Amino acid sequence: MSVPIDLQKRLSDAPVKSESAWQINPSGWQELGAQLVYTQDASGQYLSFYWQEAERYDLRPEAIAFSSTNEAFGPTAIDPYLERLRQILETLVPQRFQCQFRYREYTFPFDLVISPILMPDGSATRVLVMGSQVEPHLAMVSNNSIAAAQTIEANLDIQDELSACSKEKLSTTSSGVDEPSSFKNYQKLLSKISRNIRRTLDLDTIWQQAVDDLGQGLGVSRCIICPYSHSDPEVKVVAEYQQDSATSLLGQKLKLDKPYLTEALTNLEPLVVERGSSPETLQQSMLIVATCYQNQPNGLIRLDRENCFGDWQSEEIELVREIADQVGTAITHATLYKELERARQEAEDASRHKSEFLANTSHELRTPLNGMIGFLKLILEGMTDDPEEQMEFIQEAYRSALHLLGIINDILDIAKIEAGKMELELSQLDLDELFEDVEDFTKTQALQKNLSFRIQRPPTRDKITVYGNYQRLLQVMLNLVGNAIKFTHEGGVLITAEVVRKKVVVQNQELPGMVKVRVIDTGIGVSLEKQDRLFQSFSQVDGSRTRKYGGTGLGLTISQKLIEAMKGVVNFYSMGEGLGSTVTFTVPLYQDVVMGSEQPTDVDALI
Predict the structure, then answer these.
(1) Which residues, 6 or more positions from 413, have their beta carbon under 8 angstroms from its beta carbon?
(2) 5-157, superfamily in CATH?
(3) What separation, in Å, do the N-terminal and C-terminal C-alpha atoms of the chain show?
(4) Going by CATH, does the domain composed of 187-339 fall within 3.30.70.270?
(5) Which of 70, 364, 402, 580 is most exposed by smallest CB count within 10 Å?
(6) DSSP strand E in 211-267: where?
(7) CB–CB of 160/168 below 8 Å?
(8) 502 phi and psi, to 5 degrees?
(9) Chain centroid to CA 589: how far?
(10) Which ranges of the sequence are coiled-coil (predicted)?
């Protein structure tokens, strides 16, 4: 148990040796579930104090203000208690143990949790102590029985030394208190693991370090860790410690349909699962605990012991709980750091792509503009007297102007899309009319490159009506077909359409299906590793091709966003460089159609 962050801040900011430190709201401490709460410095001097039973025994907090633990109210065994305080302040690791307190002729056994109060610079000079009584009744002793009380204190502190399958009692020393070596070992192990997982923000290192230290420190046959997300039906083993005889589980997935895994994730409490009904038949004993952050699970730790029955001791379970809490926090911090790094990298990539885009676009804008200026200048300066030649120059200037307008429209469209201001009005439209306009605009370009150009309509007995925005669908098809022609040097371009009967809801209307349109070419294709860049804004597959093929690299991105706005999907397929490509998109079908005989897609006709 550690000090809550908001409480840490209040305590670290609180004045030392000030009357205000004693103005404690009892209800605030009761909400934390503590019967006894106080703060002390390394010498044991009280800096603040609250005890639920104080009035019952006529103990006024101000009466022990700034007194040490050996006065008025405090542990019966002072020296071991102060040694614990110094250890906690030095290691900055909380400790939990039982301690006998005395006041006048009374003694009170408490279960204490002592946590360092961290200062802004990371150091600690004070501790927060929170405790609850171990027994509901109080044991009264006489004034001359302090020695007996110290013996009780020693017995409360002595714990069993743990081994794989056996226990050995430790004897007390003449000082009255003797900590078991196992307890010291656990504290060292806790400190070691805490230091190791705090040294890095690399998730893989945190996971492996935690299982290695826990597995070796507790002598288990296996220790595994699995990250967890709320929506996951299963978890994957990402780190493992195992003895040589154990079969590796690394990389395997564990389904969360087992009740004990669900219970561990729900209750956030360590859970012991013993496979077998008796010590003779037991094959495996498992300790399972969820890692968490702010009471939300983010992982699972499982420790296995083979051929042991009832072997998990309370100290071990508490140790694993503490480690799980720290690992859960470390996982969250490392995940946030990883997400920030990813966001930073994406921002740098976007900035680089925009810089490349601006460099490419400046060339794309200058080329048609220079053409327009050149042809118009020739006409204005009277460099040609032939009316036919003048008309040719005017037509070239006009085509350059249209090309320039297309580039500017692309830039404006992507700006609207990125600003979230792209709004489309959807209506009924005839697919055949759309295909006819596409053919009118693009077929001449294909024929000029000696490419075949075909449109294959679905075999229906009536016209196909789709639901979309006509101008934007035309823009998408001109983008896709224009790219296909531009990047194809031999063969041809084929446009096909297919009716997919699957009910969809668009703008609160239930429609009978979708129409899938394919634009197939036999062009240069795209390698598999570069296809993920196709739909990135301001990016082309290969920047070096910009001068050869031209373009802003916005066509596919704009097409994808426009189709998505019409509730469709865009996909790109290519088997590799030189193997052609296929771009598909879907658009909602407005009304069902009667199909005729099926016609196969004639891709071979392109070659």
Answers:
(1) 422, 554, 558
(2) PAS domain (3.30.450.20)
(3) 73
(4) no
(5) 402
(6) 222-227, 234-236, 239-242, 253-255
(7) yes
(8) -155, 115
(9) 38
(10) 333-360
Strands 452-456, 492-500: parallel, antiparallel or unpaired by DSSP?
A: parallel
Q: Is the pLDDT of residue 27 over 80?
A: no
Q: Could you give the 3-state DSSP secondary structure of residue 548?
A: helix
What's this model's pTM, rounded to 2 decimal places?
Answer: 0.43
| Ranges for all domains in the chain classified under CATH 3.30.565.10 | 423-606
Q: Which residue intervals of the chain bear CATH 1.10.287.130?
A: 342-417
Helix, strand, or coil here: 203?
A: helix
The CA-CA-CA angle for residues 272, 273, 276, to 5°, reads: 140
Mean pLDDT check: name the lowest of 43-52, 117-126, 563-572: 117-126
Q: Would the pLDDT of 295 be above 60?
A: yes
- CA gap 268, 33 in Å, rounded: 18
Helices (H), 158-258: 181-198, 203-218
**Type of residue at 97:** F
User: Helix count (H) and strand count (E) of the chain?
Assistant: 13, 25
pLDDT number for residue 506: 86
Burial of residue 24, with CB atoms counted within 10 A of its CB: 0-12 exposed, 13-18 middle, 19 or more buried: middle
The arithmetic mean of pLDDT across residues 407-422, rounded, is 76
CA separation for the pair 570, 551 (Å, rounded): 20
Using DSSP, state whether 53 is helix, strand or coil.
Answer: coil
Q: Which segment of 7-11, 85-89, 318-322, 397-401 scores lowest on mean pLDDT? A: 7-11
- Residue 245: strand, helix, or coil: coil
Q: Whose CA is closest to 589, among 480, 439, 429?
A: 429
* AA letter at 36: L
Segment 207-212 shows an average pLDDT of 87
Q: Angle at the Cα of 494 (from 452 to 438), degrees rounded to 5?
A: 90
Distance of CA 484 to the CA centre of its chain: 39
Q: Which CATH architecture has domain 342-417?
A: Orthogonal Bundle (1.10)
576 and 450 in contact (C-beta within 8 Å)? Answer: no
- Every domain range in the chain assigned CATH 3.30.450.20: 5-157
SS (H, E, C) 94-155: CEEEEEEEEECCEEEEEEEEEEEEECCCCCEEEEEEEEEECCCCCEECCCCCHHHHHHHHHH
Closest C-alpha among 71, 33, 70, 34 to residue 51: 34
Query: What pLDDT was estimated at residue 17?
Result: 42
Q: Is the pLDDT of residue 138 over 70?
A: no
- Region 423-606: CATH code: 3.30.565.10
